[in-house]
Write a structure and sequence with these properties.
mainly beta; 2 helices; Glucose Permease (Domain IIA); four-stranded antiparallel β-sheet; seven-stranded antiparallel β-sheet; 200 residues
Length: 200
């Protein structure tokens, strides 16, 4: 198997390597052990969320106050290059910080997506922001509010605050379902975030 190491174009041919990109040095793979599903979700929550945030890469938290609680949604989430980041274990309507790892290149790209009449939520507005990192890694945040980069506000992982998880009218709200939808791309293609951050 071949693995691209960093952005220098160096490749190695070896047996499978348990590696992921360190949160504060995206684009540079490091060899580490594979995290369990539970530990992976905790790592992702601490990298991207504020105090109390909960991540779901495969199974929605069983504590959500929503019909999706405890459901395996890996086809919507990790297998689709996505994870959900909730305000807390219950998905409550709270103001919780949303963070991204430092080290992005250039200016983040923001946009607005309007759901058409054939979408599940016609008329819904989704605000999104995309950060590009070296090595071809990009992270896109959908359903975020109070968008503002605050380099002096860092979470426990050292990531930089870019706003709040979900928010009224962002599409990430609903009773017990307040979340931000985070898409992870490698060279323009969605990739399982567990491969990037958890050694899968």
């Amino acid at each position: 198997m071949q693995y691209l190491i960093g952005d220098c174009g160096t490749t190695t041919t070896t047996a499978p390597v348990f590696s992921w990109i360190e949160p504060q040095n995206p684009g540079v793979a490091t060899q580490q052990r594979r995290l369990s599903q539970e530990d992976c979700d905790k790592k992702i929550a601490s990298t991207f969320g504020g105090s109390g945030a909960v991540a779901a890469t495969a199974t929605e938290p069983s504590t959500l106050q929503h019909p999706s609680a405890g459901r395996d949604r890996s086809n919507h989430l990790a297998n689709n290059g996505t994870f959900h980041l909730y305000t807390n274990a219950q998905g409550a309507n709270l103001a919780v910080g949303l963070y991204t790892p430092a080290g992005w290149r250039g200016r983040p790209v923001s946009g607005t997506a309007y759901q058409g009449p054939n979408n599940p939520n016609p008329g819904e507005v989704n605000y999104n922001t995309r950060f590009n990192y070296r090595g071809g890694l990009s992270i896109s945040f959908v359903h975020l509010s109070n968008q503002r980069i605050n380099r002096s506000d860092r979470n426990v992982a050292g990531s930089i605050r870019i706003g709040n998880i979900n928010g009224a009218g962002t599409g990430g709200e609903g009773a017990g379902y307040h979340h931000t939808h985070v898409n992870v791309y490698q060279n323009g293609t969605r990739v399982d975030p567990r491969k990037i951050y958890c050694g899968w």
